[in-house]
Specification:
This protein is α/β, with parallel strands linked by helices. The protein is built from eight helices and six strands; from the N terminus they run ααβαβααββαβαβα. Helix 7 links the parallel strand 5 and strand 6.
């Protein structure tokens, strides 16, 4: 975990719920494959240090198939092709951001480095079994991550992208005030046509960030188009 996050979250690691979660993961790892790999569970913290968060994109579960999850919600590393949800995210960015071209890679770390926190509410999952690590303690931990973001006093605010009912309930439970909360259907191919496609969230986020932080302060989503990605 990045030091900036560890410094504000270290008290969580000694709480009973986290000790139980840790023991569960130790036992789970003996008999099952867990995604993402252990060394990547907190990669979101390393790509987006605490004091650089401008946008939070809430996911629910890590991808649960081979070669997918690497610690950032919705993101996959090459050579894995972008899953359906990410393809729809790219479609919406294309609509919202002039000059954005659909990337061939699903690696979102380049925009994570610009302040987009790609955070799942549950940070691990058993291989091929969606939701298998929910209600084991991760939700308490990631809720505290979000509380820390909300409590920061040294910035004008943060954009929360809450796609789908679980993400929206998480935002509602935290009482997100004085920030921008963008809600819509989930980008999954099963629901994207019910309100995700056409939601203009990426345009709205950048307009809000520029109004709050100043001209040029929006997220440069076009870094995902570079050949290194």
């Amino acid at each position: 975990m990045d030091q900036s996050w560890y410094a504000i979250l270290k008290s969580e690691f000694t709480k009973l719920y986290f000790k139980k979660l840790k023991q569960f993961l130790v036992e789970e790892n003996i008999s099952n494959t867990i995604y993402p790999p252990m060394e990547q569970i907190y990669s979101w913290s390393r790509f987006t240090p605490f004091d650089q968060v401008k946008v939070v994109v809430l996911g629910q579960d890590p991808y649960h198939d081979v070669g997918q999850a690497h610690g950032l919600s919705f993101s996959v590393l090459p050579p894995t092709k972008p899953p359906g949800s990410l393809k729809n995210i790219y479609k919406q960015i294309c609509q919202d951001i002039p000059g954005f071209a659909t990337p061939t890679s699903g690696d979102l770390s380049r925009v994570a480095e610009l302040g987009v926190l790609w955070l799942n509410t549950s940070l691990t999952v058993r291989a091929h079994k969606a939701g298998s690590h929910s209600k084991k303690g991760w939700e308490s931990f990631t809720a505290e991550v979000l509380r820390k973001v909300l409590a920061r006093q040294d910035h004008p605010g943060v954009v929360f992208m809450a796609w789908g009912l679980p993400a929206q309930k998480t935002c509602d439970s935290l009482g997100v005030d004085e920030h921008l909360v963008l809600k819509s259907a989930h980008p999954s191919p099963l629901s994207a046509h019910k309100g995700f496609l056409g939601n203009e969230h990426f345009r709205k986020a950048n307009e809000w960030l520029e109004a709050k932080y100043g001209p040029g302060s929006g997220i440069n989503w076009k870094v995902l188009n570079t050949k290194s990605n």
